[in-house]
């Protein structure tokens, strides 16, 4: 249970406001792909696949390898930015109120070969998604280290969610 659950807040947009957060404009693709795909699974529900969202905030890329170029705390900030971008894509594709369950996150942290705290970095994204979506935000996750990521960003996260069709 999150502290927002104890306040009785169920609307994701109200939760964002209470956290002092605003959804960014959903990032546009930067290559040959689309940001989201809805796959109908029956009973008015769809799987929502969200392409990897990189750590870009207000048009600025958050870059650097963890932990030698950026701290774990800075990498966690980058992960939260990715989570906000994921939430923005969910809102654009289906509406946050229609998210039944975030099924899985796939997270990549630009890191040195001897760094093993990728789960600690990605907890920042996981925790934010749960804070905004409540139990619907609880998910499975892969936390991986990468020797390179697009544009040298610190974090990239993709997701799969179950949503109600609009």
How are the strands of the biggest sheet laid out side by side?
1-2-7-5-6
CATH class: Alpha Beta
The number of E-state strands comes to 7
Q: What's the architecture in CATH terms?
A: 2-Layer Sandwich
Q: CATH superfamily assignment? A: RutC-like
Main structural class: alpha+beta
What is the residue-averaged pLDDT?
94
Helix content: 25-40%
Beta-strand level of the residues, as a percent range? 25-35%
Shape: globular
What low-confidence regions span 5 or more consecutive residues with pLDDT below 50?
A: none
The total number of structural domains is: 1
What does this structure look like?
The protein has 166 residues and is α+β, with helices and mostly antiparallel strands. It has a single domain, classed as 60s Ribosomal Protein L30, Chain: A (2-Layer Sandwich), CATH 3.30.1330. It starts with a helix and ends with a strand.
Structural topology:
Elements: H1 3-6, H2 12-18, E1 36-42, E2 45-54, E3 56-57, E4 60-61, H3 72-93, E5 99-110, H4 118-133, E6 140-146, E7 155-164
Parallel strand pairs: 5-6
Antiparallel strand pairs: 1-2, 2-7, 3-4, 5-7
Helix pairs in contact: 3-4
